[in-house]
Amino acid sequence: MKKIREINFTEFSTIYQQHLIADFPEEEVKPLYVIENAFAANKYAAYILEEDSQVKAYATFMWKDKNLQLLDYFAVTRASGRGQGIGSFFLQELAHTIKVKGFIIECEAPEKARDKEEQEIREKRIAFYLRNAAQMTTVTANVVGVDLRLLYMPIEAGLESINIETDFLSIYHNLEPKEFYLKSVKIIS
């Protein structure tokens, strides 16, 4: 039986080492100490989807105000196999489990892809979130040199209840080291 569980930083650090650093491009992987500091400040949480004691998927969230959370990392483990509905199941269960206005979601901008294959992957990622009730916004951000399209997944409140630009920036600008994130995270359109 599939089960969602919130995990602590120690458990997350294992996920980070075993999965996250392989699942995400190097430029998108925060140093583990940044996440550890956010956990310690009660500004970060991680969840896993387990079945038969095996991690099938994981997700992390960060926030300034816990009522609106940024989906920081979301992945189905390679061993679980992608494209089998695990991600959709997990995302929908997270939406039922975490009581917030909604989730801000970042996806790499397809138009900034290096090649056609990468562009298709980025478009599929956006389509996945749209199929799962997220809404595309008109906002593009740049986070540490990566252009990201912002989506919003309403849980208890619609997009009109937030200021996506201000709220997105405030979440990142709340991370330590503040000076780095103040310089490295901006809205570009």
Write a structural description:
The protein has 189 residues and is an alpha+beta fold. Helices cover 36% and strands 32% of the residues. It has six helices and eight strands, in the order E-H-H-E-E-E-H-E-H-E-E-H-H-E. It has helices at 9-23, 32-40, 86-97, 116-131, 164-172, 178-184, and strands spanning 2-7, 44-51, 54-62, 68-76, 102-108, 135-143, 146-154, 185-187. It has an eight-stranded mixed β-sheet with strand order 1-2-3-4-5-7-6-8, with helices on both faces. A hairpin with a 2-residue loop joins strand 2 (44-51) and strand 3. The longest helix has 16 residues, at 116-131. It is globular, with a radius of gyration of 16 Å. The termini are far apart. The mean pLDDT is 96.
Mean pLDDT: 96
What is the spatial order of strands in the main beta sheet? 1-2-3-4-5-7-6-8
| Uncertain segments | none
Structural class, judged by helices and strands? alpha+beta
State the end-to-end CA separation.
43 Å
- Could you tell me the number of beta strands? 8
- Name the helix and strand elements from N-terminus to C-terminus, one letter apiece: EHHEEEHEHEEHHE
Count, helices: 6
What composes the largest sheet? Answer: 8 strands, mixed
What share of the residues does DSSP label as strand, in percent? 25-35%
Radius of gyration: 16 Å
Give a short summary of the structure.
The chain is an alpha+beta fold and 189 residues long. The protein has helices at residues 9-23, 32-40, 86-97, 116-131, 164-172, 178-184; strands spanning 2-7, 44-51, 54-62, 68-76, 102-108, 135-143, 146-154, 185-187. It has an eight-stranded mixed beta sheet with strand order 1-2-3-4-5-7-6-8, sandwiched between helices.
